[in-house]
Amino acid sequence: xxxxxxxxxxxxxxxxxxxxxxxxxxxxxxxxxxxxxxxxxxxxxxxxxxxxxxxxxxxxxxxxxxxxxxxxxxxxxxxxxxxxxxxxxxxxxxxxxxxxxxxxxxxxxxxxxxxxxxxxxxxxxxxxxxxxxxxxxxxxxxxxxxxxxxxxxxxxxxxxxxxxxxxxxxxxxxxxxxxxxxxxxxxxxxxxxxxxxxxxxxxxxxxxxxxxxxxxxxxxxxxxxxxxxxxxxxxxxxxxxxxxxxxxxxx
Length: 251
Prior knowledge:
The structure is a single chain. The strands form two sheets. Strands 5-4-3-8-7-6 form a six-stranded antiparallel beta sheet, sandwiched between helices. Helix 1 crosses helix 2 and helix 6 crosses helix 9 (170-183). Helices cover 49% and strands 19% of the residues. The chain has helices at residues 3-15, 24-31, 35-47, 64-77, 80-94, 136-144, 148-157, 161-164, 170-183, 226-249, and strands at residues 51-53, 60-62, 97-104, 107-114, 130-132, 186-189, 196-204, 210-219. The protein is globular. Strand 7 (196-204) and strand 8 (210-219) form a beta hairpin. It is an alpha+beta fold. The protein has two domains: 3-73, Orthogonal Bundle (Arc Repressor Mutant, subunit A), CATH 1.10.10; 78-249, Beta-Lactamase (2-Layer Sandwich).
């Protein structure tokens, strides 16, 4: 990994640790880079305004310069304005926490969270969190709708069991991919945190590629039996409508 790649890895880790940030040691652990290397990178990024330390803390967070750069890039890439009404509608109609996530390479990034009226909520997902494809319902929905070759290449280069447990072994993951393709929507039956379930549907770009996902999370008792059918129908309807809206933008 070259210097730019290491800097990008550091920034990605910090983006998933907002708003509280992370220590140098934590960033080193999450990136797999030596701590002295991470410290030098953080100091350099700080000089450019791309990261900063929280006042009175050892934690690093993303800097103001990234906000300014992001504001400029948003004109081209941001679809959250388009997606937000669909996320709000899902939360309102189901009472669950609803999300919109985007694919970035081999990961999904949670962009929007909207909590519903049901008082018991899952806090596994939050805005800014990055997870590998195939982990959580959003990533599973996207992975299942990738072209076969792309899906096989992804599975050949990742090993998810070390961090996410035996439920993410390849044979079990391929079984869930097949189920997702059959139903149209993905189910996470407590595979990350026991008792926290989720369902997701892929959202497609103008080239019919899965670039985003809508998802719902909540407690297990809310995601069984007939409610799965209801939530699946709502997710697929919303995902289809959002795909059409994004397609009209030419994304």
